[in-house]
Amino acid sequence: MIRNLVFMAVLFPMLATALAQPFVGILLWSWISFMNPHRQIWGTAAYLPWGMMVIGATLIGCVLAREPRQLPVNAVTVLLALMLAMFTLTTFTGLGTPAEAWVKWDRAMRVIVVLLLTAAMLSDRRRLDALIWLMVIAIGYYGVRGGMFTIMTGGSHRVWGPEQSMIADNNHIGAAMLVALPLMNYLRLQAGHRLVRIGLAAAMVLTLFAIIGTYSRGALLGIAAVIVVMWLRSRHKLLGGIIMAAVLAVAINFMPAQWTDRMNTIGTYEEDQSATTRLKLWEVSFRLALDRPLVGSGFRGPYTQSAVDTVMPGGPARAVHSIWFEVMGEHGFIGFALWLGLTLAGAWYAWRLIRLARLHPQLAWAGDLGRMLQVSIVAYSAAGTFLSLAYWDYYWTLMVIAPAALAIARRSLSQQSDAEPAGFGWRTARAGAATPRPAVAAGWSRQGRAST
Q: pLDDT tens digits, residue range 381-403?
């Protein structure tokens, strides 16, 4: 009961704030959607339609505050809009149960609308970092708690996500923590306070223990990919490699024999009923895409026996367990190309951030963010190969962040250029012009990356 009252006491004032400051509504939506805090309480608050209330307050706030003034047009926002149109078409023509298909479409629609609003409101680095902090806290909470649980129980029990959420399954929460891990490292690199850096480093170690504690074989493969890419993108490869290898070795050796036995089945997947069933599910989805290459089978098509029977009579009709084949089977090859294009666009903007930072050392933060975004993309791609997590808004938000960060970095360079007199290379502002102040999180000042 106390949790219920405290939760409502926090949420309702924030809803009122969103009416005047719509970006608060974006953060509030992200917190509820990513972390699912209402699943941690009991009582009335657990069943209220918080998502709809937040969206309503945010949209009203956009009208009252006259924000955003325009939607940025980039590869990510264009692809999101095209995906929404494609999802609508495939839902109309789908083979799945209409009621279930439209429920899934409704959620995707709301997510994409909020993502477009998010893209329009990420106008400066303060907002950018606020969103990243919120994303880290939302998943990091389960990482820290799960890591402590794994250590205290000796790894004898699995780590699970919040009930009735997209990341409730042990495999899904494992992938979610993998994607969040590089974001923690980005914040650690940018933090100006020593205690913050130590706290984030400790959170990363505990999160790694939590990922191991999920007993997810897909997450273990994802860890290997993340460590390799993070090492490649690290500035201090020798020290970083030693630390990452040591922490991983300690975590693995800490786990009991039952964990080792389960992980060893990766090498003998032919004998694992779960693995062979997944291969059959992937085949079903691929056949659905071949049979209807333009529109696929629609949302929930691969879950519907009558739809599966059109390409494989008596074949398995259930969760596809692969982000790649899930989209392919539900939306055909065109929908799959749009969905895949979102990741490729995010990777491209992350690379542009790294390149821009190399040319302009004062944008070191952009380079760090670009590198860690690349690691998150690899984490999602590797772990997601074995999961039905294709429409995860947390990951899509990262794709929105990439072009927004690039625009903010370029704007910062433009402002610095306008503030300097031409021809002399002076670092002082022109007479009568105010010295521009970098848009960074308050209190951050490390190696000149950010100041207050």
A: 999 998 889 999 999 999 999 99
